[in-house]
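Hi V.,

You were right to ask for the full record rather than a summary. Here it is.
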Amino acid sequence: MQQTISLPMYRPQSHETRALLQAIQLLLAERNIVARLAFPAADLLAHWRGSDVLLSQTCGFPLMTALPDVQVVGGFHYSAPGCEGVNYRSALVVRLEDQNKTLADFFGRRAACNAVDSQSGFNALRKMVTPLAQEGAFFSQVVISGSHRQSLVEIVNQRADLAAIDCVTLALLRRDEPQRMRELAVIGYTPSTPGLPLITAAQTPRETVQGLREVLHTLVTSARYAERCASTLISGFSTLPREAYRVLLS
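Predicted structure:
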């Protein structure tokens, strides 16, 4: 069984992500570890649970609720506004007409969320509105959009009023789709939490896990790969234990 590496969370089909994966693949090959690139388009949970996963990137909430057996390798640092070291947060995004409002002002209005198992788009926002809610739900409607980008489309098209958007995704969209982003504003941020975990299968030997950490450290510190990292907003890497993500369940 050939092992796979994937980065399915931030623009997985982009040229920049593919180039970054190829850099990781080359660094692994230099250690005589052969892995093919994978680009899972659906059923990410099944992909992450696969015994062939040498390296992938998941979300912290499914890590703690649906992936009890995978091993955490660590996490990338990102240069996007809202990131600090391995931690990240979500921006509360609204239409320009609502830019002077606070989160409390959106009681009874509509939210868009990328998925109900998303830390950045759902769980973080749910934690923020729970203390603000009166009896019943805070929002009158929650649209499950399927992606952060689509959540923003829902807001622009006035089918939703607010969304919590992963700050890395937001920075990438500001860079790559500036025209759409001019119609939107940020009114706040969710609390900082550990960013997207890099994982490996439960069966991966301890020495291989350590080798993966060394490869990722080389990736983010070598001038050879500086351009590829910068194009994906990656600025560093830290080893991180699974226990660091328990805060997401509190």
